[in-house]
Amino acid sequence: MPQQSTNRRTFLKSGTAAAAVGLTGVTGCLGGGGGGVSDLSLAFTVPVENLGSLFDIEDLRNELTNVGEEYELSVTRNESTPDSLNSMAAGEVDMALLTTVSYGSAVSEEAVPGNISMISTDFWDAHPDWYGFTLYAHPDTGIEAPADLEGAKIGVNAQGTGTHAVIAKALRSADIDPENGAEIVELPFPSITSALNDGRIDVAIYPALFAVGARAEGFTPVVSSQDLWDSEYPFAYTVASNDSLDNKSDAIELFGEDLAELVEYCYDNRSEVVTKAAEHFELPEPVVDGFFLNNNDYYRQDITIDMDRLQSTIDELVDLGFLEESFDVSEYATNDYVPSIN
């Protein structure tokens, strides 16, 4: 990954007024109107796979220019992106990793006081040369193709998520009713392999980190995102509450600079990052090494937002029934906080 300067950029002055009811959990700003030193908070879902999770590793933070000096950052983990969204709505976090479904639902339903804005892209799904979300079945089930999913118990971390949307699209591809044609079982990602082995579920959707284990177990790949979408599409993002963007804009811009530095550092020092991440998150190092920043990982084109592709992805969620109507993403997404790393 080529090194580039991450000089400060002109930040967006949000046109959205702060909500009348303040978010008590995100009022750590020591200076008003975006000035001064701020305390920021970030929630993620899957360690290592979600780039923001790496901010939780002190040794990696120490390689970055701003965090710990110009702003403070606390990092927490949730079981699903809707959980992170709920934390943001409750005022407990400033920023969170969301998928297209949770982002679109949050915007449409105004789930967060003052609403939210996307500030960076984490990764893309369904790229032909990189990992795509995959449904794996236990071999004993005999499930090998989407048509075999009729009546199956399918594990997912949470309904109403981007992973749930992949399952729905897989069922529709086989003319199976996503609402009634299969049973959706909610399980934390770390529990899905044991649930398959115990026969509690027949199939599960695997993100990149846990797919290393699915391949090691010899589970049967049933269908992947590449089989369902014509081309890659942005899947996961960092979003911020608009109240936080209003009150902590300087700090969030500095976070964006650090995020770009962090991604470049990971590409340049992959082996070191793999070791540190495995130790910090208590994961087997071969598991982390088996997917991180190689072709078993997701496509990570850039951390900025492709507005046209994001718009078409939101439009498709309407067709899938995850959103009632589309919206103009340019009103709820901005590239003014995060520099490009291309």
TrEMBL record:
PROSITE patterns: TAT. It is found in: Periplasm. It holds the Pfam family NMT1_2. One of its GO terms (cellular component) is periplasmic space. Keywords: Signal. The keyword Nucleus does not apply. Its main location: periplasm. It comes from the Archaea. Belongs to the bacterial solute-binding protein SsuA/TauA family. This is ABC transporter substrate-binding protein. It comes from Halobacterium bonnevillei. The lineage of its organism: Archaea, Methanobacteriati, Methanobacteriota, Stenosarchaea group, Halobacteria.
